[in-house]
Write the structure tokens for this entry.
Amino acid sequence: MIRKLVLRCLVQLENRNSQIAPVIDEVIRKNQLSEADRRLLTEIVYGTIRWQGHLDWIIQQFIKPGFQLDLQMSYILRVGVYQLLYLDKIPNHAAINETVELANQKGQKSKNFVNAVLREIQRSADSLILPQLEVDPISHISLKLSYPKWLVKKWIGQFSPKWALEFCQASNQIAPVSIRTNTLRIDRHKLAMSLRKGGNQVVESRIAPDGLLLTKTNPIRSLEEFQAGLFQVQDEAAQLVAHLLAPQEKSEIVDLCASPGGKTTHLAQLVGNVTNVVAVDLSTKKIERIQENCQRLGITNVHIQVANAKTDEIEALVAADSILIDAPCSGTGTLRRHPDIRWKRTAKQILDLANLQLEILIKVATQIKSGAVIVYSTCSTEVEENQEVITRFLEACPRFSVEPAHDYLPFLPANAITSDGYLQVFPHTHSVDGTFAVRLRRID
Ligand SMILES: C[S@@+](CC[C@H](N)C(=O)[O-])C[C@H]1O[C@@H](n2cnc3c(N)ncnc32)[C@H](O)[C@@H]1O
């Protein structure tokens, strides 16, 4: 039953617009799974997607050259090999038998084929030899750590083979749940104590002042502290962005690209739930998610608007002092939490996103007053969406200057700030989601 549901999730994830967490949530909801089954389903779906490239490399060595597997068969074999090689708690015979049953619909011949391939892999996978890192770093990293070659090549060119190797390793780790204390209701220490009492394992973030990491926890929505609005789920690095904007009380604050409201609610919190924050996103559905979070957290100073940041329909911008543009991006900094992203992105998408990001930034820049501050941020690691957007922006809008991130985030280690004064962190340098943010002031 669980393997069939796994297969259903994997086939749905073939759709480029699908996202791993909602696909799994829906299957869990529709099938009313027990806690144990829920965990197993989640683990196999995430693991199979994360290791898909590596699994395919192994499978290819055990089928005849040129033999084309159909989509269904590819997934059946991937699920089988994933369990054999990565899930110690499932005995090999059970992993093989359950996987063979998945091929039932396709007939006895297919079942025999799956059985034979899996048994051969169980016997001989250890003896496979990868291309050497020193000789062919692209193939080595791509096949060993399961990333598309074009992205590994891009990262090696953009940074170095060492960077690419370490980033890919760290991005395959399962990230702890990261939360931000709702300081309007409780302080971090008291929240940590309360969560620990409930049996959760909690450590304090070393880089986000109000952040906690839940290294072992029950489902988040079931926690009393979540229901009571004592925290917001948010990566540690994402928690730095509102501090970089450093909004002041009694000022005008606008958060564009705001849904689901992680940073909106943080901004609202930093100004003590009194100063108004205008939060903007593209659709009513998106805006509803901001409202839900505000309601749960007891935040009442957020005013919402459905609008497109590429237009001049956001009146609040004219008088704004602090503006956040947390731009739509490729999300390559979040591969720990969204392993499917690596198989969905294309080089063209990254360039299209960079053009959209620049367009939004320039449109906003032309509407705001002198002295106003924009923070531009992404959860991308791609130079096109980060440094290059800022370079292109400063060429187009020379009346802006960069204010060094260190002045606003003095508690960060030096290697979290680039020589240009940008905030930039990665999973392998700070054990956080890859995040980029720049503070720009209009100075004319
Ligand atoms: C990275 S997410 C924002 C995450 C959010 N700031 C948070 O911290 O929870 C980017 C958001 O930008 C929105 N978006 C994309 N294009 C937009 C546009 N042209 N105008 C306004 N919002 C846009 C998307 O709907 C999406 O919700």
In short: The two ends are 65 Å apart (CA to CA). The first strand starts at residue 177 and ends at 181. The mean pLDDT is 95.
